[in-house]
Write a structure and sequence with these properties.
single chain, alpha+beta, 3 domains, 10-stranded mixed beta sheet, 3 helices
């Protein structure tokens, strides 16, 4: 009886395991990858062109292919962008009568929203809702232009900003006859050829679309400059200001290519940089210098998405502490009552004397206690005196810090 029950249990377990195995799609993948193009041969097989895992923003499309053996399944291609979001799916029921069979799924790149998402993409191949495999390809940027922005903040309130933009184009074919940019923050816009200094025609409509006529179709290496005034600085109160900047790359010549941008912001000498934060940028690359004036340089690659930054700075012309060229109005060093010594002098004297007394208590006391010179030194009192001097040192330092902060706030 027990043997019969054990056999039934084993049989049930075997049936459950068989059911689990049967639930998975019976498909064997023999080959998979990516290509720039493909064609079908006369016998129904797949002919691939330029197999690769690297694509650019100018490629027409990316095609994922698979060679597999199976009978019948619902096949799906799932495309994930560099941010990990599912952006496109394609598929349907398929039968493979004469195995192996070839299947292909594609995604257009050039001139579409896909071109703006540079980075590593993932493609998942599913059969009956089960992921059979995942593969990856890179969509790499094509730089069609370099932008060099320069902002100079005026030395006096309301701190007007003068800006310029130098554009260097890279396409080798002569396709650039005009340049369009969205500039709602700019006024008094002019432009000229960077090499010849010849003025260029500039037009702007009521929607802040600015068009620069390049005179004739231009090719790689051509450069021109826009000059303009800016209204992007805001007073936060208390001598604090912010420059808020927004970029709209898709407004550049209807171009979705990546733009290499550099911003050079020069602040007056009485300004200090407080903070710099990015918009749509997780890692804003910049460096700040304070040698001649105060300048901040930001470098970023922007691809078809809003981008910006906010630079916060403070006017310290009325605040009495040092700038990069030396002290403005240094904090006064008041003398102690009845003594011709300052707080700083007292703190230094207290520190030196405390070290001297502690050393004496450790070195001299043992020597004199053993000698027959009749000189008695109380070791405990030396330590107490040293401790008192340490307390005086800390109190004077704290008082100086409080005094300095009070002067700065005034």
């Amino acid at each position: 009886m027990k043997t019969r029950i054990l056999a039934i249990v084993v049989l049930l377990i075997f049936m459950v395991e068989c059911t689990k195995v049967g639930a998975a799609p019976a498909i064997i993948v023999l080959e998979h990858g990516f290509a720039e193009n493909y064609n079908w041969t006369s016998n129904g097989h797949l002919a691939l062109f330029n197999e690769t895992y690297n694509f650019t923003q100018d490629d027409v499309a990316v095609y994922a292919y698979v060679k597999a053996t199976f009978y019948s399944a619902n096949l799906t291609w799932a495309w994930y962008d560099p941010a990990g979001e599912l952006v496109y799916t394609y598929g349907g029921n398929a039968n493979c009568v004469a195995s192996p069979c070839d299947f292909i799924g594609g995604l257009r790149i050039s001139g579409t929203w896909v071109a703006a998402k540079v980075g590593e993409w993932r493609v998942a191949f599913l059969a009956d809702g089960t992921v059979i495999y995942s593969d990856y390809f890179w969509l790499r940027a094509v730089i069609t232009q370099d932008n060099y922005w320069s902002f100079t903040v005026g030395p006096a309130p309301p701190f007007p900003i003068q800006g310029s933009l130098r554009v260097v184009i890279h396409p080798s074919n002569r396709t650039w006859s005009y340049y369009r940019i969205y500039m709602p923050y700019a006024a008094n816009i002019t432009a000229y050829d960077y090499r010849t200094m010849h003025p260029l025609s500039v037009t702007a409509n009521q929607y802040s679309r600015v068009v620069v006529s390049l005179g004739e179709p231009r090719s790689g290496g051509y450069s021109f400059v826009l000059h303009f005034g800016l209204s992007v600085s805001y007073d936060l109160g208390g001598g604090n200001y912010v420059i808020a900047w927004r970029e709209y790359p898709w407004e550049r010549y209807n171009d979705v290519h990546t733009i290499r941008e550099e911003y050079n912001i020069t602040l007056p000498k009485q300004m200090i940089l407080l903070d710099l934060v990015g918009y749509n940028s997780m890692d804003l690359k910049y460096n700040a210098t304070q040698s001649t004036g105060r300048s901040v340089v930001i470098a970023e690659n922007v691809t078809g998405q809003p981008f910006g930054w906010a630079l916060m700075y403070r006017d310290i012309s009325g605040v009495p502490y040092a700038n990069s060229n030396g002290p403005v109005n240094s904090v006064p060093r008041p003398l102690l009552p009845l003594l011709p010594i300052s707080l700083g002098g007292l703190s230094i004297w207290a520190a030196v004397m405390s070290v001297f007394l502690l050393t004496a208590s450790e070195l001299l006391s043992p020597i004199y206690s053993k000698g027959g010179y009749g000189i008695l030194i109380n070791r405990k009192r030396l330590r107490l005196a040293a401790l008192l001097l340490v307390v005086i040192f800390m109190i004077t330092i704290a008082y100086q810090l409080v005094l300095q902060q009070a002067v700065i706030q005034r």
